Amino acid sequence: MFAGATPLSFLQAPALHSQGVGRGRAGEKMSEEGMGVLDIFVFKASGLVKMDLTGLCDPYVTLTMTNDDGTGGGKVRRTKYIRQNLNPEFNQEFQFTVYKLSQMLVIKVYDHDDLGADDLMGTRRIPVAELVEKDWQEWFHMLDQLGHEIIGEDGTMCRVKLDIKYTPHPTREMAALGRAIYVDAGAGEHQVKESIKRAAGCQPRKRVLIQFGADWNDSCKKFHFLLREDKDCAAMCAEFFEYFLLDAEHEANFDIMKRLGEPQWLGFPVFVILDHAGAYIHTQSAGHRAQHTHTMPSSRQSRAMLCTLTRCTIDRPVGIRPHFHSDRS
Question: Residue 231, Cβ neighbours under 10 Å: how many?
Answer without folding.
Answer: 8
